[in-house]
Design goal:
The structure is a single chain. This protein has about 375 residues and is α/β, with parallel strands linked by helices. The protein folds into 2 domains: about 180 residues, FAD/NAD(P)-binding domain; about 150 residues, 2-Layer Sandwich (D-Amino Acid Oxidase, Chain A, domain 2). Helix content is about 30%, strand content about 25%. Strands 1, 2, 8, 9, 10, 11, 17 and 18 form an 8-stranded mixed beta sheet that branches. An 8-stranded mixed beta sheet has the order 5-6-4-13-14-15-12-16, sandwiched between helices. β17 and β18 form a beta hairpin. α1 runs parallel beside α5, α1 runs parallel beside α8 and α2 packs across α8. It is globular and about 65 Å long.
Length: about 375
């Protein structure tokens, strides 16, 4: 059976589905191909929208992109809710970062000064003020800072909303895997699928590779781009309140415990997300006893009441990391072949602006200048220069 489309998107996580929705909304006929969207990295995430906290010092270009993303997120989420009629769980109470020893407090003050230098709010709080915001904090909290501009979204509601929105816009989906890009005369002409059954190929005008950490497995993508993306394992926990217990926290709470960052993110139904590990373990997605122990220990160090909650789920996902921690979005040097991958820890935050950028490329426009440092050519040009 022949299948044709204007655009094939390889990957059904939040990046792929957001791109598909925007492309279909622009009038394009879109097919999304993904073998297991229910296990995408975006479904194993805390949903933090933290433009500075998730950037490292010195990553100025990524910070500028993240700031563009946080400015866009609220309107994108509002449109998504209007189209679907479902709440995506966007929370704007802010993030409370707390410190427990002088070293942590000094590091937090450096981060606070940096945030202010880029125009973001940061309200310093003493230990008593921290407990007025979050009464269940451990008693030895030294102080903290309220980052009002760091939000969160319920990643699973958000991902479900994107799938519903793209379906309503006419996007077709195939539960399969793109294994290769079909090219002729220097231009992408379609894709090959893993199944090889009734639908072995799809003809299209443009292919968008948005397969997260699996993007490197798509044959036909330039070798330099395939080598630039790798899986980075992350484990996190979902905790649920016992019957009759009121919500424990109202803000996202971040802290450093034994030199390791831990965060606890509340949901509207009282559920809390605790995360997350960062492990170079290849494609391993097993949940380990050590990670569960460490995450619970760190969470209880910050919020002792965590010990009374129900461990509802322990899960592991694979983030798409890159050689420089930045996303790879744009044209590839092969006509009709775009890439949108490598979002690492910022996939949820960057999904709206990535969708906007991809849609711009698809209709012959240029995305905002914040995307220029993250073009695929930063990797492919290095190969040509050798």
């Amino acid at each position: 059976m022949a299948v044709t489309a204007d655009v094939v998107v390889a990957g059904g996580g939040v990046i792929g589905t957001a791109i598909a929705w925007r492309a279909a909304s622009a009038g394009l006929d879109v097919v999304v191909v993904d073998p297991e969207s229910g296990n995408a990295a975006s479904l194993v995430a805390a949903g933090m929208l933290a433009p500075v906290s998730e950037s490292m010092f010195g990553e100025d270009a990524l910070l500028r992109l993240n700031l563009l993303a946080i400015q866009r997120f609220a309107s994108f989420a509002a449109e998504l809710e209007e189209v679907t009629g479902h709440d995506v769980g966007l929370r704007r109470e802010g993030t409370l970062a707390v410190a427990y020893d002088p070293g942590d407090h000094a590091a937090l003050m450096r981060l606070t000064a940096f945030r202010r230098s880029v125009g973001l709010d940061a309200e310093e709080l003493d230990s008593r003020a921290c407990r007025r915001l979050e009464a269940f904090l451990a008693p030895d909290v030294r102080g903290g800072v309220l980052f009002a501009g760091d939000w969160s979204v319920d990643n699973r509601r958000y991902a479900a909303g994107l799938r519903q929105a793209m379906g309503s816009a006419g996007v077709r989906t195939l539960r399969d895997r793109v294994v290769g890009v079909r090219a002729r005369d220097g231009r992408a002409r379609g894709v090959r699928l893993a199944d090889g059954g009734a639908i072995g190929t799809i003809d299209c005008a443009t292919v968008v590779v948005a397969a997260g950490c699996w993007s490197g497995r798509v044959a036909g993508l330039p070798d330099a781009l395939r080598a630039a993306v790798r899986p980075v394992k992350g484990q996190l926990l979902r905790l649920r309140l016992p019957a009759g217990m009121p919500p424990v926290i109202s803000h996202t709470v971040r802290a450093t415990v034994r030199g390791v960052d831990v965060y606890v993110v509340p949901r509207a139904d009282g559920e809390m997300i605790v995360g997350a590990t960062c492990e170079e373990r290849g494609s391993d997605r097993t949940v380990t006893a050590g990670a569960v122990h460490d995450l619970l220990h760190d969470a209880m160090s910050v919020l002792p009441v965590t010990s009374e909650l129900i461990l509802a789920e322990a899960c592991a996902g694979l983030r798409p990391g890159t050689l420089d921690n930045g996303p790879i979005v744009g044209t590839t040097g092969i006509d009709g072949l775009l890439v949108a991958t490598g979002h690492y820890r910022n996939g949820i935050l960057l999904s709206p602006v990535t969708a906007d950028a991809a849609a711009a490329y698809l209709i012959g426009q240029r995305p905002p200048p914040e995307w220029e440092p993250f073009a695929p050519q930063r990797f492919t040009a290095q190969v040509r220069a050798r």
